[in-house]
Amino acid sequence: MEEIHKHFLNNNRRNFLKKAGLGIGGLALGSMLDPFGTDNNIDPFSSLKNDLNLPHFAPKAKRIIYLFQSGGPSQLDLFDYKPKLNQLRGSDLPKSVRDGQRLTGMTSGQNNFPLVGSNYNFKQYGESRAWVSELMPYVGKIADELCFVKSMHTEAINHDPAITFFQTGSQQPGRPSMGSWMSYGLGSLNNNMPSFVVLLSNGTGRPKGQPLYSRLWGNGFLSSLHQGVQFRSAKDPVLYLKNPDGVTAQERRKMLDYLAELNHQQEASFGDPEISSRIAQYEMAYRMQTSVPETMDISDEPDHILQMYGPDAQKPGTYAANCIQARRLIEKDVRFVQLYHMGWDQHENLPNQIKGQSSDVDQPTAALIMDLKQRGLLEDTLVVWGGEFGRTNYCQGTLSDTNYGRDHHPRSFTIFMAGAGIKPGFSYGETDDLGYNIVKDPVHVHDLQATILNQFGVDHTKMIYKHQGRRFRLTDVSGNVIKDLLA
Fold it and tell me: pLDDT over 90 for what percent of the chain?
């Protein structure tokens, strides 16, 4: 009974302060209690209000498609051509090159670390003369549209902290994802769709590889309004979005109106800002009932577009099908589309596994970029392709003439970007002849995040959120915009 008494006592205090309007304190409290304003005619999705005054300067990008390759693609078999590794195949990696680097438990017990080059051939493409493996011929053909960053490095050596670091700027769970930061800072471009959508696909390389968790697209300490919405490949892309049998749209509308009225009363009594988010989410779900099925239905796509994306384009849930969905979502002005493709964790049998995995993504990735370009969308849509780290230049396990595996390698790896003011036909950064260490123009994860935000007109040091007495940002306390990557 004592706890109940305290609850009502506190509630009375809130009501008193709210109604008394004690100067500036009353105004501040009113703002906290009703962050979207008290006018019921104001659409909470029309302007996600905060004091950041974003964008800070004229943006190049309005939207982003992040093609995250979960598991760690082998840069040495795809983009970072190192012929010396083939010359030294089987030789032990010099300790001076490794320089005491911490290894995973999967290779730390090996007695030697035999160097291994790629079993696949490389060639140069386009006017940029970019080196691309025969595993990625379609990507090679559009090399002049791409900006390769061959000097990425990260701090994490295992999958979960490494992916979390890329997505949230921290290795520890609990921070907002990049898409959530974008939603918080820049708001929505389409009131009928979420500002942050997630698509998942399984690769053929290692289908039962590392799992992904929904916290990777979570809102962290930001309002739940900004969390990513996962679209499934099933009949119902978003669970529980459709009206139950026997419930009409008019009945649904009436129910939501009554529910909103109850929530507003609860908000006035308790002052919980999450109640505003709840109201907005119900309204969004109502609007999505029409917009989502229309967007996800690709039956109106011309045959030549489907053929452009490859043979898997009409198989729901594949990477190719999700690339088409990503383009359609961008056309609907979804600000952030996160596509995760799993299966890149080739610790063994890499030559066979990576062949299928690369085939999953090669043609659809190139098709997506060229499709965006032909529709005039690439000018203000940023496309990012890459994983959480790279793979080692030495073999994990037994090396044979035809087979090898590679362990995780955070010290150097390759990603590429396209569109939205990023310099096309350009390769940035270099690794040593053995592809182990960066020798020129290193790019940290926070540097990449700062550069992405820069293209959206955001100064990464100023997009902050105060939580538990500390000012947080996506790039934490580091990060620099890599201006050489900008056109």
Answer: 69
Cis peptide before 55 (omega within 30 of 0): yes
Host H or E run for residue 130: strand 130-133
Domain, as residue range, for 328? 63-485
Q: Is residue 105 part of a domain?
A: yes
Amino acid at 251: E
Name which of 290, 295, 54, 58 is nearest 183 in CA terms: 54
Interatomic CA distance for residues 305 and 117, integer angstroms:
36
Same domain for 137 and 195 = yes
pLDDT band at 234 (very low <50, low <70, confident <90, very high): low
pLDDT digits (tens, 9 = 90+) for 415-462: 999 999 999 999 999 999 999 999 999 999 999 999 999 999 999 999
Mean pLDDT of the chain: 86
Task: Determine the 3-state secondary structure of 113 from DSSP.
Answer: coil
Q: Do both 19 and 160 map to the same domain?
A: no
CA distance 433 to 473: 36
Q: Is residue 366 classed as helix, strand or coil in its secondary structure?
A: helix
Question: Hey, how many other C-beta atoms are within 10 angstroms of the C-beta on 418?
Answer: 24
The alpha carbon torsion through 317, 321, 326, 327 (nearest 10 deg) reads -170
Which residues are CB-neighbours of 444 under 8 A, at least 6 positions away?
153, 154, 478, 479
Alpha-carbon span 361 to 197, nearest angstrom: 19
Instruction: Answer for the pair 288, 256: CB distance below 8 angstroms, yes or no.
Output: no
Instruction: Give the total number of structural domains in the chain.
Output: 2
**239 and 325, same domain (yes or no):** yes
Answer yes or no: do 16 and 90 share one domain.
no
Tokens read off for 85: 């590794």
* Same-domain pairing of 69 and 202: yes
Q: What are phi and psi for residue 53, nearest 5 degrees?
A: 55, 50
Residue-wise pLDDT tens digits, 332-351? 999 999 999 999 999 999 99
Would you tell me how many other CB atoms lie within 10 Å of the CB of residue 401? 8
With respect to residue 43, please indicate whether it lies within any of the assigned structural domains. Answer: no
Length of the chain: 487
Residue corresponding to tokens 């540097």: 447
The Cα-based distances of 200 to 46, 67, 208, 293 in angstroms read 28, 10, 14, 18
C-alpha triplet 69, 296, 418: angle, nearest 5° = 40
pTM for the whole structure: 0.84
Looking at the structure, do residues 23 and 154 belong to the same domain, yes or no? no
* 86 and 29 fall within a common domain: no
What distance, in Å, lies between the first and last C-alpha atoms of the chain?
Answer: 66
Same domain, 7 and 100: no
Q: How is residue 486 written in tokens?
A: 């900008």
**Residue 51 maps to a domain:** no
Residue 57 is assigned to a structural domain of this protein: no
